[in-house]
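Why does residue order matter? Because the sequence determines the fold. Keep that principle in mind as you read this record.
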Amino acid sequence: MTARAHVRTKRTTHPLVAAFLRFVVCGGGVGLAASGALVLLGERMPLVLANAVITIVSTVVATELHSRISFRSGHGGWRVHLKSGLTVAVSYAFTTGALLVLHAVQSAPSALVEQTVYLSASAVAGAGRFALLRVMVFTSPPAPPNAPALTRPSIVIAA
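Structure:
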C-alpha cells in the first residue's frame, strides 16, 4: 500500500457571501425568537403594538450581533444603532402591512398561518435590510487620499 499525499484545497468564500450567511444566521435567529415573542405578546396587546415592541427589542439585539458577527465591523454605539433603527422602519411597515392584510383577508388566521406570513415578510425585509446595513451602516470609513510624501528627494527636486 502506498501512501498518498492528500492535497487540501482551502475553500474561499467571497466576503459578501460570507457576510450574508452570517447575517442570515444572526438575523434569522433573532427573527425566530421575535416570531415566538410576537405570538405571546399578540395575545396580550394589539398586534400592531406587539410588533412595534418586538421590532425595537429585536433591532437592538440584531444590530449588536450584526456589528460583531455579521459585518465584523467592531464599531457599535448609538450612532450605529440609530442608523440601523432607521433601516427597520421599512421592515416594520412591511411586516405590519403583511399582517394587517392577512387579518383583512382572514378574520381569525391560525398561529401557523400568521407566523408563515410574518416570517415570509421578515425574510423579504431582511434581504433589503442587509443591503442597507452593508452600504449605509457598517461601511469602513473612506481611506484618506494618498497625499504625496514630503521626502528629502522630492523637496530637492521641487527646489
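The radius of gyration is 23 Å.
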